[in-house]
Amino acid sequence: MNQTFEPALPDMVRGGKAACKPRTIRVAIVDDDDATRTELAGLISADESCRVVRNCPDAESALNDLPRFSPDVVLLDINLPGMDGIECLRRLKAQSPVLQVIIFTACEDQSRLLDSLMRGASGCLSKRTTPERLLAAIHEAYEGGAPMSPEISRYVLQQLRQNNGAPHETIKLTPREHEILDQLSKGFRYKEIVANLGISFGTLHSYISKVYEKLHVHSRTEAVVKYLNL
Questions:
Q1: How many angstroms separate the Cα of 6 from the Cα of each of 3, 26, 55, 109, 122?
Q2: Which of 104, 147, 111 is nearest to 127 (CA)?
């Protein structure tokens, strides 16, 4: 059963008056298990810097509802009834390329998890992840990081090593675009890249959009994989 929350409103304006407080991270949950959604909503709502704006039991309702509620971060299960989570991810990213999606699942098929990263997921976490780590991952994804469970990280690294011998594609990147990709490949978050390169967040997002377009990718992980093989 869908749980309804109020639509998106600017965090800095309430009742016509400016409110001086940090931006709240708007989170949506997509999981077919009622108990899991209730538990996650309670956990996330207990963090004063986060707010659950939508709670969906399947991919179809997520695709219909999430554009209206403008979440910053989505926790998405892979094993959903009807349309699976990977196809839902692909369509969500087509609707909103800047949306940060964390795969949060009991699925242990690492090839499917890697596929989700290549299709635009910001990170992948096991449902065995501790509450503290999950909350940290939401903040990390929001800030431009790529949170992953250790076993998934190891698998991604193995795939990178295996692909080192793949044919290299000729892609023309500017020196600044190379710098951006180098920072991403070293695991820096967006706020760290901004500070390291002395640029604004708007400029960084503009560069990232151009890089994604040139590399024909949709996520940080996919961009880094391709960059390391150039």
A1: 10, 11, 12, 36, 25
A2: 104
Q: Which runs of consecutive H residues, i.e. helices, occur in the chain?
A: 34-45, 59-69, 85-95, 110-118, 131-142, 150-162, 175-185, 190-197, 201-215, 220-228
Q: Give the global pTM.
A: 0.70
The amino acid present at 189, given as its one-letter code, is R
Provide long-range contacts, Cβ within 8 A and 24+ apart, for 32-35.
Answer: 32/57, 32/58, 32/77, 32/79, 32/80, 32/81, 33/77, 34/1
Helix (H/G/I), strand (E/B), else coil: 43:
helix
CB of 83 closer than 8 Å to CB of 109? no
What residues of the chain score a pLDDT lower than 50? 1-20, 166-167
Give the closest residue to 75 by CA, choosing from 25, 29, 15, 139: 29
CB-based burial label for 148 (10 Å; 0-12, 13-18, 19+): buried
Report how far residue 134's alpha carbon sits from residue 224's, in angstroms, rounded to the nearest whole number: 23
